[in-house]
Design goal:
The chain is mostly helical and about 210 residues long. Helix content is about 55%, strand content about 0%.
Length: about 210
């Protein structure tokens, strides 16, 4: 999963504490290649975004060749998607992530990356559809739930739905970086909208 694949929430003052959250993969296993994101959980000041990375055309050509040689290998396609995502070439990222998922449809990280790419293309319904697919594979995938809440809030103006996504994340993984980000978002959201639903108050996650 891309380090940049948590959507940047910059569309409302009461979401200020979630602005700039950029979470990387915490998958176990071998590195996915030179384009894979390192495991990390970092933040940036509100309103400050990472600059798109330049595309290494030599690397792209090598990965394209690898993809052609190995039609059943998802990894070169994932790496191409990652490269174009980092360069903010989201249409290209969608193309390669889609091809990777056609080969391996049960990778929630890549499915979530595809969803985030759709969101950046102003296609929130398609983003949410991908998040549903990711959660069908892994119902407790934290980065998917965090992104789902952000896209519901900012892409669909569905604050109740956003609160539900974040509440579930707080309940299932309260100590994780994603769970902590979701709790901050919930606290800010409920402070601005005291009558909003979303289940158990953010400060009191379920323990059973």
């Amino acid at each position: 999963m891309r380090a940049e694949s948590i959507v940047l929430a910059i569309a409302g003052a009461f979401f200020g504490l979630i602005v700039g959250w950029i979470l990387g993969t915490q998958q176990a296993g071998p590195p996915r290649g030179p384009a894979a994101a390192a495991a990390q959980a970092s933040s940036m000041p509100a309103g400050q975004a990472a600059q798109p990375r330049a595309v290494d055309e030599g690397q792209v050509q090598a990965l394209r060749a690898a993809a052609e040689r190995e039609p059943q290998n998802a990894q070169p396609r994932v790496q191409l998607g990652n490269i174009f995502f980092d360069a903010e070439r989201y249409e290209d990222a969608v193309t390669w992530y889609t091809q990777a998922i056609a080969i391996n449809p049960r990778d929630p990280d890549v499915i979530t990356d595809l969803g985030v790419s759709y969101y950046y293309l102003n296609r929130p319904d398609e983003a949410l559809a991908q998040f549903d697919k990711s959660l069908a594979v892994d119902p407790n995938h934290g980065k998917t739930m965090l992104n789902q809440g952000i896209v519901r809030a900012f892409g669909k103006q569905d604050l109740e739905g956003a609160a539900a996504s974040w509440q579930k994340l707080v309940e299932t993984a309260p100590a994780s970086p994603e769970g902590q980000a979701a709790k901050r978002a919930l606290d800010s959201l409920k402070s601005a909208h005291p009558n909003l639903g979303g289940g158990t108050p953010a400060g009191n996650p379920k323990t059973d």
